[in-house]
Amino acid sequence: MMEETSSDEQPEMVTREEVEQAEKEANAQSPPDGRTSFPAPKPLPSFFPNSYTTNTPSRTSVEEDSMQSGNSRQESASTQSESKSRVASLSSVNRKRAHMDDDSMSSTYQTSSLLSWISGNSLVSKVVEKTKSSVESVITTLDPGMKEVIRTGGDINIVVTSCKDSKLGAVREAFQQVFGLATVTGQESESGTAAQPVGYTAGLKGAEERIQHLRRSSTISDEQVSVSIEGFIVELLPDKWYEMSCIVLQDPVNHIDLQTFSQPTPIPTQYIHSAQDQTPSDYPLRWAGLSVSIGQVIEQANPHIGHVDWQRALVGVDRRESLVLALRSMAYLYSQKLPTSMIS
Question: Would you state the pLDDT for residue 62?
Fold first, then answer.
């Protein structure tokens, strides 16, 4: 049988003196510079190539390379991030510009579409025209003289051979109604016929002679558009006399020559006989008419009636009203014959 080891055996104890002695021996054997006394390693055998030792990088060079590569990667990553941020910012700017251009084009398109819709919409045009007419009506009601100022202008420039309001005002009103804008001025002229022309021929000759008188005196140029009005009396029915006005328009530049007549105003026969009796038999212009006008005869017989307003006193319509109607027809005919470029 194997002997069992006694459990009461104690381990060998090392005294303090033995420890100090061992330390002294160790210090005596170690070199004075603190380096170990292990011998230097022997060189490698000759069969190992030198390139192995030279090409093998040291730990320090590997760490430096890794640090450099890390720095390069960081710089590359930083450069890439900057490039991405620049690209992102440029893309954002381009998107904003494109958005602004789209908004501008959209607003421009919407504006042009709105303007084209307004200009092409008859209802809107009527509303605008009605508003404009209402505003002008308010202004001219407060100040009637503003009507001439508002509608004066444009390409239509007409000289009337009279400064009387019954003629000049009628021409201005009619042509401004037709053309919208028209410049109408007056120049007094002479007809060269009898004081009271009788018949259509005398009326036409008197109107034309007024225009020629202004041209011969160089008061107006040979190219000036002119309108002349000459009143006359005519026996349309046996012993039935009427007062009318011959209206002549001459436009030498566009070779337009128009004539028209106002509505007839009946004249009581006694006034015609009185005018005939007052005309001398040797009156030089007897061939063209009478020496006194019908207005003068009516004023003599009725002092409360002026020789200018006798038409209203007799028939309720003054001369200007009847002239405006005839002149509107003439202005319309004139607009039809003018070149399109002159009509606004």
Answer: 47
